[in-house]
Every structure is written in C-alpha cells, then in structure tokens.
Amino acid sequence: MDFRELVKVRRAVRNFEDRVVPMSLVKDIITDSCEAPSGSNRQPWSFIVITNKNVMKSISDESKKNILKEMEHNPSTSLSGYKAILKDPGFNVFYNAPCLVYIAGPKEVRSVAVDCALAASYFMLSAADRGLGTCWVDLGSAITDPALRTEIGLPEDHVIVGTIILGYPVEIPEKPPRNEPNILKIVP
Amino acid sequence: MDFRELVKVRRAVRNFEDRVVPMSLVKDIITDSCEAPSGSNRQPWSFIVITNKNVMKSISDESKKNILKEMEHNPSTSLSGYKAILKDPGFNVFYNAPCLVYIAGPKEVRSVAVDCALAASYFMLSAADRGLGTCWVDLGSAITDPALRTEIGLPEDHVIVGTIILGYPVEIPEKPPRNEPNILKIVP
Hints:
Two copies of one chain form a homodimer.
Chain A: H1 3-9, H2 23-33, E1 46-50, H3 53-73, H4 83-87, E2 99-106, H5 112-129, E3 133-136, H6 146-151, E4 158-167, E5 183-187
Antiparallel strand pairs in A: 1-2, 2-4, 3-4
Helix pairs in contact in A: 2-5
C-alpha cells in the first residue's frame, strides 16, 4: 500500500472480528518491525505474542489493579481520566482482541524506549498494510506480579515499551483530529 | 511508495548533496509526522527546524562537549565507543546535512519519549517516501547551554527526543544486518 494511503488507514482499532490471526502473519509483522532503525543499530527489541484470552484477561486485571494503586499515590497522573473505567470489573483493557504483542527490551539500554517505539511504529504500519488493525494499549503494560511475568516469558531485566493489540478490524475508525503542527522555531 | 519498498529505502543517510531542502517540503514531512499515534491522542510533539550551518556547528560542539563530560562521570556508558570521534574537533555530528529537525515535547508528559519517537518514525518514512534521506543523530541532542537553547527556541520544560538530519542523499547506503526477530514466548 502507498505510504500516504497507509498513514490514513493506520487507525487505533479496538473492535475486532472473531477471527484468529495466523501466527505466520504475526511473525511476518514482527520481522517488518525489526527493520526499524535503532541507536547504534543495537536492535534491543524482543517480542511476546499472546493469543490466550484467559492470560490476556489476567494481565488486564493485574494491570488495572496496579494503575489504580499508582493513582492512589499520584492522583494527578495523566492516567487519572481512566479511573472510572479501570474500576469496572467488566472492562478488559484489550477489548475483544484475538492477539496481544508486547515489545520489550533491557532496561539498561539507554535508548530502549525510543528504539522499541520505532519498532512499534513499524509494527502498526506493517499490520495496517496487511489489512489488520492495531491499538497501542498502555493500560495493559503495568505487570508487576512475578508469576505472571514468568508465565508470559518477560525477563526480570526487561521493560515493556509497546503493548499492541492486533486483529482483523470490524471497521476502520475515523481519524481523531490532529492539531496544526507546532513548529517552535525555524533557524535559517 | 509501497510500504514494503519504503522500508527498504529508509536507511540512515549521512552523506548529502549540497542542495537546500525547500522549507515547504520540510513542513509537509512534519505534517505527516503528526499523523503518528500518541498516548490519549495528546500529540505532545513540537518541532524545531535548523538550516543555519553555523548554528548546527555550535550545537555539534556543545553536544560533543556535554557527552564527553558525561563519559567522565560514567565511563561505562553505551556511548563510550564514540569517545575518540567526539574528541576530534573536526567531527561534526551532523555531517554535511543541510537541515536538522528536533522533535521535542514537555518533560512532564509521561509518554513523551515514545510519542515523539513515533512521530520521528513517521518523519523518517515520509522523508524517504519523498526521495530524501534522514539519520537520527542522538549525539546531537545534549544541549544544556541556556543561550543556545534560547537561540533555537527550545523551551526550558521540553526534552529533545528526536534529532534528525535531513537532505538529499548522495546514495542510499546498504542495509546494516538485522538479527533474527527475538520472540521470547508465544502464549497460545
């Protein structure tokens, strides 16, 4: 798909068809993600793929609990707008997605956040290019429980950067409004 | 350009033609960058465009000095491999690029690093789609001098995330090798 077209089609998708994403396709998208640039070509990204709905529900519950706990200590967090929905036991942060992919890397790599975000960007564009929908769900990244971290294969020294749900979209949502680009200064 | 083709063409470019990039084109690429997703659609990114070679040289000198100072305090930093080149007074971290673009955002936004990295990814892909070359030059982001920060219009509460040089490439470099994707676990 043409890049300009692709940018329009890549929208945050939160409603998915009840349809499995073939693992070979997930792997192809991950391979595309690894084409992203990274600091000193270090490629610090690793991936975890979860299609088990029970595990996704456990992660959703764990992450909601931890974010609510964080809010108690820091009521002014930018996540505070999500308080009501996080308290709803029926709310699954991953919606009805058939697949969840984590992009994580070693905490000690100074550029881990931007490197993994670049890979995540490629992931979302590659998925859109292949007719799939994604949404970065930061509400699903607060996993502290050691048993759950072990269950999903997340090493102790790794930090989750990207939390991306993946599936076949029921529809492509409208583009949320964008601000005019803010150019602080041009230095000629 | 087709996304799969575009991913191949987007390479780190460090050698540019002696040719000005029209400001309208820089602005178009910035507009494309703002199509990136961001946490809660907050779009915390701002841009600074520098085409003045003297200012770029001042920034290069300032940033080299600050990184070398950081190395004294932290000799094991991952940047230590750059020590010799940073000590070379003739080395300009921006090479011969005709244009430098900063992507920055407010420190207080918790997702500022990943949001601005997503915009940077769109920036680099959009530039490649338009026949331009880019390189993320993290060695040019260590600006602490208040006078220099004021000169380029960087607000005190902002952090530089992306430091990207832009121009017409002399050639598209070969792709540096990529590791096999590291899938830590599949949880079916």
